[in-house]
């Protein structure tokens, strides 16, 4: 059995992967990770740094993945950056090792700049929501419910702080995992933004494009994405140099 760990985007939750996980073949076991403050973990205090998030996710995979299972990671947007850092952290820990990192819908880490130079604490709710809108990170229908909207904004603040913490401290991380960039054809990121992912791995880079925009995995891109993931994960592991 092979395991596919899935890391969500900023402001997101495990729900973003519902369609994708239903489309995966039976020989791939999905492990959908969820950071504190949302979904099944909504009672837990949200994290605010990349180091905390990486530790949380690394501990999860160390507990979830058996010694006889192979691991790959699919990280979407913020999750792509966390996936890179988690893959490297697992290598330092001695396992389980990530064979393939599917880095979805984000530019190469070394090209990124902080979203909020002074942190989200000094940003207004409107500024946080404007940033989320640029990356399709929030369902606008939630804003019609004041209590839910307040919670969503608070969660976005913590996740954006995680993203900015990663950019400041972990953007030069390198992994032994093979990196496969996945992106929507209508997303803002082109070759100039994603090709430099090559420098975050010791193995050659592969880039795959799918129909749709930033959240292509919830729309027309879901079926071809699931097929591509299954195909890549079925390939023999490449030797690490």
TrEMBL record:
<dbReference type="InterPro" id="IPR029058">
    <property type="entry name" value="AB_hydrolase_fold"/>
</dbReference>
<dbReference type="GO" id="GO:0016787">
    <property type="term" value="F:hydrolase activity"/>
</dbReference>
<protein>
    <submittedName>
        <fullName>Alpha/beta fold hydrolase</fullName>
    </submittedName>
</protein>
<dbReference type="InterPro" id="IPR012223">
    <property type="entry name" value="TEII"/>
</dbReference>
<feature type="domain" description="Thioesterase">
    <location>
        <begin position="4"/>
        <end position="227"/>
    </location>
</feature>
<dbReference type="InterPro" id="IPR001031">
    <property type="entry name" value="Thioesterase"/>
</dbReference>
<comment type="similarity">
    <text>Belongs to the thioesterase family.</text>
</comment>
<keyword id="KW-0378">Hydrolase</keyword>
<dbReference type="Pfam" id="PF00975">
    <property type="entry name" value="Thioesterase"/>
</dbReference>
């Amino acid at each position: 059995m092979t395991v596919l760990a899935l890391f969500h985007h900023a402001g997101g939750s495990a729900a973003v992967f519902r369609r994708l996980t239903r489309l995966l073949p039976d020989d791939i076991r999905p492990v959908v990770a969820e950071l504190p403050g949302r979904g099944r973990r909504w009672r837990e205090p949200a994290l605010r740094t990349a180091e905390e998030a990486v530790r949380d996710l690394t501990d999860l995979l160390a507990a979830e993945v058996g010694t006889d299972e192979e691991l790959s990671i699919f990280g979407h947007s913020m999750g792509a950056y966390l996936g890179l850092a988690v893959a490297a952290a697992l290598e330092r820990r001695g396992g389980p090792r990530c064979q393939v990192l599917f880095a979805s819908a984000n530019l190469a880490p070394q090209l990124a700049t902080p979203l909020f130079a002074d942190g989200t604490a000094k940003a207004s709710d409107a500024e946080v929501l404007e940033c989320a809108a640029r990356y399709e990170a929030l369902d606008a229908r939630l804003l019609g419910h004041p209590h839910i909207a307040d919670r969503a904004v608070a969660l976005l603040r913590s996740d954006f702080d995680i993203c900015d913490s990663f950019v400041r401290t972990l953007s030069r991380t390198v992994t032994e995992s093979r990196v496969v960039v996945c992106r929507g054809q209508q997303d803002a990121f082109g070759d100039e933004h994603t090709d430099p992912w090559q420098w975050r791995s010791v193995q050659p880079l592969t880039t795959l494009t799918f129909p749709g925009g930033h959240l292509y995995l919830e729309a027309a891109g879901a079926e071809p994405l699931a097929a591509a993931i299954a195909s890549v994960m079925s390939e023999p592991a490449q030797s690490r140099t």
